[in-house]
Amino acid sequence: AADSADAVLLGLDPEQREVATTLRGPVCVLAGAGTGKTRAITHRIAYGVRTGQLMPASVLAVTFTNRAAGEMRGRLRSLGAEGVQARTFHSAALRQLQYFWPRAVGGEVPRLLERKIQFVAEAGARCRIRLDRGELRDVTGEIEWAKVTQTVPADYPAAARKAGREAPRDMAEIAQIYGTYEQLKRDRGMIDFEDVLLLTVGILQDRHDIAEQIRAQYQHFVVDEYQDVSPLQQRLLELWLGERDSLCVVGDASQTIYSFTGATPDHLLNFRTRYPQASVVKLVRDYRSTPQVVHLANGLLNQAKGRAAEHRLELVSQREGGPDPVYAEYADEPAEAEGVARRIRDLIAAGVPAGEIAVLFRINAQSEVYEQALADAGVPYQLRGAERFFERQEVQKALLALRGTARSGGNDPLLEDLVGLGSQVRAVLSSIGWTTEPPAGSGAVRDQWESVAALVRLAEDFARGRPAATLADLVVELDERKAAQHAPTVQGVTLASLHAAKGLEWDAVFLVGLTDGMLPITYAKTDDQVEEERRLLYVGVTRARLHLTLSWALSRAPGGRASRRPSRFLNGLRPGSAAPSRPGSAGERVARPRRRRGPALCRVCGRTLTEAGELKLMRCEDCPSDMDAGLYERLREWRAAQADRQGLPAYCVFTD
Ligand code: ATP
Ligand code: MG
């Protein structure tokens, strides 16, 4: 057993190993993106389980997204630590709520409200307050903030003022809408996302018997992405813990991207104050990204300001060099989307799997033009949003067929000869018309095929982890995933918001729409808000393992006025741009690069270049073609300046 436990430590560096083997007392891991925080805690749990120091059922691991929780469960399973609960705060709370509701409150748990914004609109209407779309979004955000900070409607104005919130409307009006919204929900017997945590916290506070029962079950807690814990989640965690301190938290203050909802890195940064006996471990080796990507990430951190920035950790890449980040400017959004789709097609042709590519944007509305461009280019893609996977018609049909067959207990003669769950699943799905080979072309038919293919892959993975599993076991697993909204990955290009990309990684990442106004987004006004936008870009950059492309468009529609500028966060980092005059200041003017006038010269002999071909190469025909690094750098600089001077309409600047 000792040998097999040690095997878990093999893939870890000394600091990660320290995290994995410190199983007693509070542990805090402070480390930048890609340094293996998630890996360290996963191995820690596996090590504890394998050495018999942690009982699987007594561990509760909390991650930020359902996908991350699912990945952690998968990794734990393959590390021989099955049975550990890995969930989001929300899904862990919902489960406890469902379990204890009949005893604590009686009856069934109220239904979960899905279209919150409609309820807020209705509440506004009842209060005779007209809200436009932007206000509606902002008021909803304020209500969410109030709830996670446990602020009741009457206290909202004072609390919001104290917290320096930028309210979209008069604060008393918002308080009124908030109160009406709560009433509406109650009248209709519904609860919202925040209520799940609020009610769980309420029950655990009031009912010591229930709190004790939960504490008796869970002895050890591990929290990933702790920098983004909200006050409400923190409260829940404290209630779970009681007087105990078996808590391991990991986080990166530079990746705080949810403070607009009331989350705060203070709990992470003050962990030592709260638990003076805590072991604090720092990781700096970046295992995810190439030195080129890490260089840009560090550059972004160096321009950051504020509390989180004081705790930044310089990353040191452990990987071999790769391609430089590509900066691409386009005339308009459709041109940008087309250009990105083209590059994606090239990457796929060069052997990068579609599932290893992501297009990340600031707001979900940006995705549409990319969906269109990828569909036109015949590239399969998926929108992040696990919840929709199980609602797709083809998936529901497939599940129904599997459940049917599973219920008949495998008596179906068709199945007797089939070895393995994967073959069984394929056979069942073939019987409802699914083919093993993908249909030609792209579009809806191909998308449907991909969803079902993802189910088949999931069945195969599941069977690998549990060779004796039956179809009925698989159906149970699928139902669990459906309840937790943890969908399998469909192997297409991922389209996701930067917020949803947290904790994930891809070989190739496209950060699109990087204009001033989109990132930072126009409604980020205060210094703190702008800094959060910068961190969002840092999160985006650090999702890339190898290829990173940053792009923007100068106008929205073709033929429009080129009024947009590249994101100010790229100043001083993007070749050909000047460093910001006052680093990190919120109101800084976008610095224009200094214009270099004069003719282009051969980078080798200095002769004036006139021929188009020579200009392109930055070298006269007489000079040798071998290029050392310094020259190459100068070439890039020159092209940046050139591009800026000519205001080229649509070009991809640095794709040598
Ligand atoms: P983020 O802050 O983005 O959540 P993270 O710190 O959680 O990042 P991980 O996702 O755990 O980082 O690890 C990043 C990548 O580096 C993963 O692909 C992981 O498998 C790999 N990795 C981590 N540690 C090591 C190691 N010691 N040796 C080799 N690869 C590693
Ligand atoms: Mg992580």
TrEMBL record:
Which CDD domains does this one have? DEXQc_UvrD (cd17932), SF1_C_UvrD (cd18807)
The UniProt annotation puts the region (Disordered) at: 557-594
Question: Which EC class does it fall in?
Answer: isomerase
List the PROSITE patterns hit by this protein, alphabetically.
HRDC, UVRD_HELICASE_ATP_BIND, UVRD_HELICASE_CTER
Protein keywords: ATP-binding, Helicase, Hydrolase, Isomerase, Nucleotide-binding
Q: Where is the UvrD-like helicase C-terminal domain?
A: 291-546
State the Pfam families in the record.
Answer: HRDC, UvrD-helicase, UvrD_C
Which reaction(s) are listed as its catalytic activity? ATP + H2O = ADP + phosphate + H(+); Couples ATP hydrolysis with the unwinding of duplex DNA by translocating in the 3'-5' direction
Binding sites annotated in the UniProt record for ATP: A31, G32, A33, G34, T35, G36, K37, T38
Any one Gene Ontology MF annotation carried by this entry is: helicase activity
Q: Where are the transmembrane segments?
A: none
Enzyme Commission designation: 5.6.2.4
Q: Signal peptide location in the record? A: none
Ranges of residues in domain UvrD-like helicase ATP-binding: 10-290
The record ties this protein, via PANTHER family, to: ATP-DEPENDENT DNA HELICASE UVRD2, UVRD / RECB / PCRA DNA HELICASE FAMILY MEMBER
Please state which protein family the record places this protein in: Belongs to the helicase family. UvrD subfamily.
Q: What is this protein called?
A: DNA 3'-5' helicase
